[in-house]
Amino acid sequence: MIEVRDLHKHFGNVKAVDGVSFIAHDGEITGLLGPNGAGKTTTLRMLYTLMRPDQGQVLVDTIDVARDAEAVRRRLGVLPDARGLYKRLTARENIEYFARLQGMDEARIRARRDQLIAALDMADIANRRTEGFSQGQRVKTAIARALVHDPNNVILDEPTNGLDVMATRSMRRFMRQLKEEGRCVLFSSHIMQEVAALCDRIVVIAHGRVVADESPEALRAQTGEANLEDAFVKIIGSEEGLAA
Ligand SMILES: Nc1ncnc2c1ncn2[C@@H]1O[C@H](COP(=O)(O)OP(=O)(O)OP(=O)(O)O)[C@@H](O)[C@H]1O
Questions:
Q1: Do 200 and 29 touch, CB atoms closer than 8 A?
Q2: Does some domain include residue 107?
Q3: ipTM
Q4: Which of 62, 67, 126, 159 is least buried, going by the fewest C-beta atoms within 10 A?
């Protein structure tokens, strides 16, 4: 479970995150939806300990990030916005390297690596150097690497960005599988169809603030709009920066 309480972060005069609070539960997919520049990536960076908030608290499985960032990192699998693979290493080696950094023993590394390569359908690319990988191949490798230590909480920054229709569908299937396994799945998107298709809970962010935090059904009911897309536009107050 990931709990965010009154997070703030500014860059100069820009209030990127301006009092964000929400809870992402285990066994659910929570979507952070907002237009470009809304503060999604900045929020996620503070959650996965890359950036320190100006104010506010983040708890992962009730552990305070400010108190024990190491323990939090062990419980998190992160697909960052910059996928950052080692291009001289093969996909398999990228996964193994991260597993070793997590302190896993060799038998467990092998088992988990093979499990993820199968689950993400990446047997055909596993032994290729990641240099020259397509967008989809890079995302798969980065996700396998992020999940190698079997974390309870999974944070994905725009996981389907740049993926084609087939790769997007397989990513959604994989995210549902993570949910079925009881994990807490939190992802960001500016694509309404994506959150509508996947989420148990939608946290809508605009101008660094949470403007709605509901199930897709409640969001429709609250805005009186049968169509989720119309509901989003109504909540955000403009269509700017949102993709259908
Ligand atoms: N390192 C930084 N330095 C200066 N400004 C920043 C920095 N990071 C983010 N910002 C600003 O903070 C605001 C929120 O940015 P953020 O990347 O969190 O938005 P986002 O919701 O993830 O947008 P997108 O959908 O375009 O990725 C923007 O105005 C952005 O320009």
A1: yes
A2: yes
A3: 0.95
A4: 62
Do 140 and 213 belong together in one domain? no
Residues 142 and 159 in one domain: no
Dist. CA 176 → ligand 1 center (Å): 28
Q: Is residue 25 part of a domain?
A: yes
Ligand 1: which residues within 6 Å by Cβ?
A: 11, 14, 16, 34, 36-42, 190
Which 3 state secondary structure label does DSSP give 97? helix
Range of the domain at 138: 85-150
The model's pLDDT over 102-141, given as tens digits with 9 standing for 90+, comes to 899 999 999 999 999 998 889 999 999 999 999 889 999 9
Give domain status of residue 80, yes or no: no
**Whose CA is closest to 190, among 81, 46, 93, 104?**
81
Q: How confident is the model over 144-186, as pLDDT tens digits?
A: 999 999 999 999 999 988 888 888 888 899 999 999 999 999 9
- How many Å lie between the centroid of ligand 1 and the Cα of residue 46? 12
- Could you say which of 124, 150, 176 is where a domain stops? 150
Do residue 175 and residue 145 come from a single domain? no
Domains identified in the chain, total number: 2
Kindly give, in sequence order, each residue whose CB lies less than 8 Å from that of residue 206, ignoring residues fewer than 6 positions away. 34, 35, 38, 235, 236, 237
Model confidence, pTM: 0.90
Q: Looking at ligand 1, which residue's alpha carbon is closest to its atom 7? A: 11
Please, what's the b/e burial string for 129-143 (b: 16 or more CB within 10 A of its CB; e: otherwise)? bbeebeebbbbbbbb
Name the least confident of 31-35, 58-62, 222-226: 222-226
